[in-house]
Amino acid sequence: MTEHRSPDTHFRTSLLEENDGPGTNPTDNQTMGEIIAARFSRRGFLQGSLAATAIAVTVSPLALILADDARAAGGSAFSFDEVEAGVDDKHHVAAGYDADVLLRWGDPLFADSPAFDPTKQSAEAQERQFGYNNDYVGYIPIDGSAEHGLLVVNHEYTNPHLMFPGIVKVVEKDGKKELEVAPLSKDQVDVEMAAHGGTVVEIRKVSGKWQVVRDGKLNRRITSNTEMALSGPVAGHDRVKTSADPTGTKAIGTVNNCAGGVTPWGTYIMAEENIHGYFSGELPADHAEAANYKRLGIPEGAYEWAAHYDRFDIGKEPNEPNRFGWIVEVDVNDPTSVPRKRTAMGRFKHEGAESIVAKDGRVVFYLGDDERFDYVYKFVTAGKFNAEDRAANMDLLDDGTLYVAKFAEDGSIEWLPIVFGQGPLTAENGFASQADVLIETRRAADLLGATKMDRPEDVQPNAANGKVYLMLTNNSKRKADQVDAANPRAENAFGHIIEIVEDGGDFTAAKGKWEVLLKCGDPSVAEVGATFSTATTANGWFGMPDNCAIDAAGRLWVSTDGQGPKATGRTDGLWAVDTEGEARATSKLFFRVPIGAELCGPLFTPDDQTAFVAVQHPADGGEDWEPFGRPSYYEDLSTRWPDFKPDMPVRPSVVAITKQGGGKIAV
Predict the structure, then answer these.
(1) DSSP for residue 294
(2) Is 372 helix (H, G, I), strand (E, B) or coil?
(3) What is the pTM of this model?
(4) Contacts of 226 (CB under 8 A, 6+ apart)
(5) Helix (H), strand (E) at residue 230
(6) DSSP, res 414
(7) 160 in Cβ contact with 167 (< 8 Å)
(8) Which of 141, 154, 471, 512 has the smallest set of CB atoms within 10 Å of its CB?
(9) How far apart are CA 510 and CA 418, in angstroms?
């Protein structure tokens, strides 16, 4: 997800119309909408089990009923009683399951951590407490256990209006009530910086319930001030050298870590996404980095960090932004280890980095660039995974090939190598080395003619069926002239999901096939053009797919970001989506979050007996819900919302979902 702060109020929020970045792709490369339209206008060639879905996007939901009767008859891989969709201030989980809050913002992580006090926050305390706005959730077993391991969690960004009592007030101007937000002090900025980053914490299941092990020897907080190493082709390059780091090898901190991953060798992957908001200042128009930064929307100035720290002012430290926008790898087995920014994997607005070991032992990472009209990537390591020697895998991410996807009208996909000296990636186009290509990954992909997508978010390979699932959240800027009968949605508000099959089932392949699994939105509204199966109930459809997970049984689970009273009449949540057999494209609502929250994670333990989910920014945007009115959060919530409690819903949390009495989820 993306956050935005209005420059006139210094107020960050996650409005749907603003939550996909500034949209900085200047090319005329084909969009996914254009390709889908062209492909489905030639649908006569379609064959196999995906044909019904492909044809369905060209017709109304009423016509879909006739084509879909056999598939809708049954055969779902999921067994649970569906949750009712809606909007309120509560968590809702399927009957027979418990949803227990495991961690909340400010919870102690160490034996000596101070208790959380929202009225007396400090950076020193926050560095010993669970961070803010938890997004990615990963689990790394200890001694192979599904009931004892390390939970790794990204802390993407901060909502100061929900964090700091008293900075938001309701004022009356010209007879209307408005929110007025005070500028942040240096101490508050320091708390924000400490609340970013990630958490590594030991957890254990005791008598069926998960507990935090606060004296765990591997517990760790990573923040915006944690020392990190730049590794790979960009390390030491002139474009990443600063006054604080003349060697160009040591970065300070990580920001806006959205989704992520856990590698096959048990390290934690953090993916830096919307870095543009942290930088302020300006560069001369003829500065060498001006075009590079424009392509990434830098500087946006959503945060006030540059007022207190020169490194976030591009006028004072023009190379600092080049040190962000990378994949970060953390060795969780050593809490003193230096996280490494793996520059071989490219620099853009990384949503996540989910991986799979290919047939030949190389490891493939799938990567989305979460912005309107940007691209889908994959990285293939040069070396092979060694399951018997963890140390031998620790630098696999410094050497490999980064590819960008080009989707064709005939349902084929080509992965284009992003390699200096190949095709247009030469000195004639301003690249002097592979380091230049990686620093400007987006421009390199532009020149290669990659396909412009509708906000690529999570990309999940599925070892069970050999397919890859790509979440495309939405694209509110798709123009009407990109629409035809086969692709009926201008201003794609609800997003879609694409399924990819690599040639020969080989995840390292340079070519493959693609198909639309789902076009999202309300299937009862014909003009929306949604393609859920007819077995999907009024509660089961969703919009704005964001994160996803593949459980141990190979089943797809999808979480959403951007639903709400105005957009869909329902809050975000977690849906189970059938991908195989008669029930293909059937979706069921399993868990629902409170008003204002998005549902991140999700993550299943290896035994499928627990689903961890992240409830991010609850209460943000609550003014869309009538019981909230237009609150000043800390000041007014208690009077405007009678059920308000100080620790809910304004504290983001990680929730552990388990089956009552034990057993696998949805079985």
Answers:
(1) H
(2) strand
(3) 0.90
(4) 197, 252, 253, 254, 339
(5) strand 227-231
(6) E
(7) yes
(8) 141
(9) 12
Closest CA to 446 of 23, 24, 25, 22: 25
Question: Is the pLDDT reported for residue 1 higher than 70?
Answer: no
* Interatomic CA distance for residues 40 and 58, integer angstroms: 7
- The 10s digit of each residue's pLDDT in 73-82 is 469 999 999 9
Which residues make beta-bridge pairs with 221? 199
pLDDT at 35: 56
pLDDT at 57 exceeding the cut of 70 = no
Q: What DSSP line would sit under 299-333, residue for residue?
A: ----S-GGGT-GGGBTTT-TTGGGGSSSEEEE-TT
- Report, in angstroms and rounded to the nearest whole number, the Rg of the chain calculated over CA atoms: 23
- Cis ω on the peptide bond leading into residue 649 (within 30° of 0)? yes
DSSP 477-494: T--GGG-BTTB--SSB-S
| Cα separation, 248 vs 228, whole angstroms | 11
What does the DSSP 8-state code read for residue 581? Answer: G
Whether the predicted pLDDT of 45 surpasses 90: no
Separate counts of helices (H) and strands (E) for the chain: 10, 35
Phi (first) and psi of residue 458, to 5 degrees? -60, 145
443, 450, 453: which is closest to 420 by C-alpha?
443
Give kind and range of the element (H or E) at residue 400: strand 400-407
Q: At 271, which amino acid appears?
A: A
For residue 631, pLDDT over 90 is answered with no
User: Within 13 Å and on the Cβ side, how many CA atoms surround 652?
Assistant: 33
pLDDT at 305: 98
Kindly report, residue by residue over 210-240, the tens digit of the pLDDT: 999 999 999 999 999 999 999 999 999 999 9
> Residue 463: pLDDT above 50?
yes
Q: Which amino acid is at 103?
A: L
User: What distance in Å separates the CA atoms of residue 657 and residue 93, rounded to the nearest whole number?
Assistant: 8
> In this structure, are residues 152 and 199 in contact, taking their beta carbons and an 8 Å threshold?
yes
CA distance 635 to 80: 40
Q: What is the pLDDT of residue 162?
A: 83
The answer to whether the CB of 594 falls within 8 A of the CB of 571 is yes
What the block records as the tokens of 36 is 């889908």
Q: Answer whether 590's CB lies under 8 Å from 574's CB.
A: yes
The Cα–Cα gap between 154 and 138 comes to: 9
**Rounded distance between C-alpha atoms, residue 172 and residue 615, angstroms:** 33
pLDDT interval class at 395 (50, 70, 90): very high
Residue in the block written with tokens 């089990």: 49
One-letter identity of residue 408: A
Tokens read off for 100: 């227990």
Residue 110 has pLDDT above 80, yes or no: yes
Using DSSP bridges, classify how beta strands 92-93 and 610-616 pair: parallel, antiparallel or unpaired: unpaired
- C-alpha span between 454 and 375 (Å, rounded): 9
Q: Work out the percent of the chain whose per-residue pLDDT is above 90.
A: 74
Q: Give the CA dihedral 359, 363, 364, 365, nearest 10 degrees.
A: 150
* Run of H or E including 215: none
Q: According to the model, what pLDDT value does residue 628 have?
A: 57
Rounded mean pLDDT of 395-424? 96
Q: How confident is the model at residue 358 (pLDDT cuts 50, 70, 90)?
A: very high
